[in-house]
Design a protein that fits this description.
By secondary structure, the protein is mostly helical. The chain contains six helices and no strands. The chain is globular.
Length: about 120
C-alpha cells in the first residue's frame, strides 16, 4: 500500500511539474526595447537617429533567440538572412511600424524577418 501511495504521489508531482513548465513557456514575455510601441520607436528615431543602432542590436538578439524555434517549424529559415540584410530589415521594420503604430517593436521585427524569409526564398 505504501509503494502505491508513493507512486501516485510521484506521478502527481511529475504531472504538476510538466503542467507548470508548459504554462511558464507559453507565457513568455518580451522585455527590453522589443516591448516599446512602434509609435514611440518612430518618435525616438526622429529625436535621435542613432537610437536605431540600439533597436537593431535588440532585433538581432531577438531573431537569434527565436532561431531555434523558427528552424524547428521551418528548416529553411535562416536568421543570418536578417542579419545580412540589416538595411532592408530596418526599412521593413520602419514600414511595419508606420503602418501599425500601436503594435510593439518586436512584432515589426518578426514581420520584417518573415518578409526577408519570403524574399530569400524567391531568389
Amino acid at each position: 500500500m505504501m509503494l502505491r501511495s508513493n507512486t501516485v504521489k510521484t506521478v502527481f508531482l511529475l504531472s504538476l511539474a510538466l503542467f507548470v513548465s508548459h504554462q511558464a513557456k507559453a507565457e513568455t514575455s518580451i522585455i527590453g526595447l522589443g516591448n516599446v510601441s512602434c509609435e514611440k520607436y518612430l518618435k525616438l528615431l526622429e529625436i535621435n537617429p542613432h537610437s536605431e543602432e540600439k533597436f537593431m542590436a535588440w532585433a538581432q538578439g531577438y531573431i537569434s533567440g527565436l532561431s531555434n524555434d523558427l528552424s524547428q517549424s521551418n528548416p529553411t529559415s535562416n536568421p543570418n538572412d536578417f542579419v545580412s540584410n540589416m538595411t532592408y530589415g530596418s526599412e521593413k521594420i520602419k514600414q511595419s511600424c508606420t503602418e501599425n503604430p500601436e503594435s510593439k517593436f518586436y512584432t515589426a521585427v518578426e514581420s520584417a524577418f518573415h518578409d526577408i524569409e519570403k524574399h530569400q526564398g524567391a531568389e
